[in-house]
Amino acid sequence: MTTTSIFLFIIFIIQSVLGLLIITKGKDKKAKLSFAFFCFSFAIWTLSYFLLELIPNNQDITVLFKTVFIGPSFIVLFTYFTYVFPDKEQKVPSILFFVIFPILFLLLLPTNFYLESAYKTINGQIIVKQNFGILLFWAYFILSLLVGLWNLVRKSKLANKANQQGIKYIFFGLFAACLFWV
Q1: CB neighbourhood size of 140 (10 A)
Q2: CB atoms within 10 A of CB 160
Q3: CA distance 2 to 123
Q4: For 35, 48, 60, 157, which has the most beta carbons within 10 A of its beta carbon?
Q5: pLDDT truncated to tens, each residue of the chain (182 aa)?
Q6: DSSP letter, residue 121
């Protein structure tokens, strides 16, 4: 095992435990479930990268590399969470909005929509031949994340002190997660 794979495994465990802790704590069922499943989706994302690290070099990894898109397909769970946390003061879009895109992107996984091939070279470098669908996927991912962040910023300005503190913790956690991924 490499240092990277050990680090990825530790992050996977932390994300999974965080998801389990969130499910067992808190009062608002919608908020805690959406954020817990958001944590689990990032755990799946991390696990897929961990598994890629374990594959020996000089291998075709196309099928396994496509699993990298499973976790981030559920970014809308974060967006949904921002509509119901810390309180549900705004109208939440139809549940179809939060279900249709992940299902669509998951149904496209077996196809070449995202990528044609992925290969791990003899020195461990991953070479990916991407398709146009990858641009649509990342546009969806970034837009969902931005809508969620915008919701949190807007809510933090309107929230009482206790809720503002909770929103600050969410921002801190997202910032820390971004640092780990870089």
Answers
A1: 18
A2: 9
A3: 13
A4: 35
A5: 788 889 889 989 998 998 899 888 877 788 888 888 888 998 999 999 899 888 888 788 888 889 899 988 988 888 888 888 877 666 777 777 778 889 999 999 999 998 999 998 888 888 899 999 999 999 999 999 899 899 888 888 887 887 788 888 888 877 776 666 54
A6: -
Look up residue 34 and give its two tokens.
Answer: 């959406």
CA atoms within 13 A on the CB side of 63: 2
Q: What is the spatial distance between Cα 132 and Cα 29, in angstroms, rounded to a whole number? A: 38
Distance of CA 171 to the CA centre of its chain: 15
E strands present in the chain: 59-60, 115-120, 126-130
Instruction: Calculate the CA 2 to chain-centre distance.
Output: 24
Q: Are strands 126-130 and 115-120 parallel, antiparallel or unpaired?
A: antiparallel
Please provide the distance, in angstroms rounded to a whole number, between the alpha carbons at the two ends of the chain.
20
| Rounded-to-10 torsion of CA 77, 130, 8, 147 | -30
